[in-house]
Write a structure and sequence with these properties.
Distance between the termini: 18 Å
Order of helices and strands: EHEHHHHH
Strand content: 5-15%
CATH class: Mainly Alpha
Helix content: 55-70%
Strand order of the largest sheet: 1-2
Number of domains: 1
CATH topology: Non-ribosomal Peptide Synthetase Peptidyl Carrier Protein, Chain A
Amino acid sequence: MQIHRVRPSITNRHIIMLESREFQRIREQVVAELEKTTKKPVEVTDDTHIVRDLEIDSLAVMNLTLALEDEFDISMPLERVAEVETVHDLIATVAELIEERAS
């Protein structure tokens, strides 16, 4: 198992431990939803800033959030959404919420 650490503000909740395969599946779906949101293929790294680099506005962020909630059967509180800045933050937050749901 690989340990995926998230930004310090999110890490305070807990550290996510997922098999690389599961983390990759989440990443692929997040990138697919980002492509739907931007309506164009996107090349992202874990450090890609969602709003600044992908030029996504607040309405698109909410649509993205709703799509990810539906895809992964999770509920993403607004305070958690506000903490997300990068693609990695988003992936880690989704993974955390999946883990929380499972426990």
